[in-house]
């Protein structure tokens, strides 16, 4: 059986609030297959972003395990986790988090440069990704000269530039108007087909959730299937 791109086993996360322990995740089980598009929905405060951060190794669980490409991230050093994130995962957030002093091309090239790739090759690959998201003519522009939709396209290109196994997206269209959001939805469909990259999307947007292959509801600290 093929190894899941991301898996979690009995994943738990709790926080201490004064003398009280607040359980956010209570034993989540999840497998994400290669090329799968998965939506995680749920009420505000249900723990969706917490779960996404743990799937990406940005936060460690109180109990249970997270496996990325079969590797248990709890068994890795912080440096090894950073390397694994850089090579195997991409991240897209509601707010694009682009570096404002750098051009679109430089922002997209950043993960490659961090991984040690030579600058000219990194810029050429960034240019190819910007072309794939329809921004070839905007590659020299800084974020301040781009629209909200264009900035989110740059963020998606940056998330894909390392050809990751999975991209984790937290409300990627939550800050966009409906028309721009629809163009981002279509772009994600296209890139999923082209690169066979898995997408795990936390969203309140029913239109985006409906486009995914599978939808899971996070409620009372557990995931359950939605039709």
Would you write up a description of this structure?
The chain is of the alpha/beta class. It is 36% helix and 28% strand. The protein contains seven helices and ten strands. It has helices spanning 48-55, 78-88, 104-114, 119-132, 148-160, 178-195, 206-211, and strands at 6-17, 20-32, 37-41, 63-68, 71-72, 89-93, 166-170, 198-202, 214-219, 222-226. The strands form two sheets. A six-stranded mixed beta sheet has the order 6-7-8-3-9-10, sandwiched between helices. Strand 7, helix 6 and strand 8 (198-202) form a beta-alpha-beta unit. Helix 3 (104-114) packs across helix 4 and helix 5 runs parallel beside helix 6 (178-195). The protein is globular. The chain starts with 5 loop residues before the first strand and ends with a strand. The model has no long low-confidence stretch (mean pLDDT 88).
